[in-house]
Amino acid sequence: MTETVIGVIGGSGVYEIDGLADAAWQTVDSPWGTPSDAILTGVLNGVKMAFLPRHGRGHIHSPSTVPYRAN
């Protein structure tokens, strides 16, 4: 059976997810550059998940400066 992993790209203000176990921020790079922020990983209700804040923690990227390709 294939393991399920959920990926979410969210908007401003979601920097903590209630019930997320083993939460950790992971810094990654992509062939298209550095994403808008580190990726929050953990387990929610038994399912692995990864969350990327689209504008970065603290809303450091305006809509016109979000590194969309890297995200």
Helix content bin: under 10%
Strands in their spatial order, largest beta sheet = 1-4-3-2
- Compressed to H and E, one letter per element, the order equals EEEE
What about the largest sheet?
Answer: 4 strands, mixed
How many distinct helices? Answer: 0
Give start-end ranges of low-pLDDT stretches: none
Mean pLDDT: 91
What count of domains describes the coordinates? 1
Using DSSP, what is the number of strands?
4
Describe it.
The protein is globular, with a radius of gyration of 13 Å. The chain has a four-stranded mixed sheet, with no helix packed on it. The chain has one domain (1-71). It is mainly β and 71 residues long. The protein is built from no helices and four strands. It has strands at residues 5-10, 21-26, 39-44, 47-53.
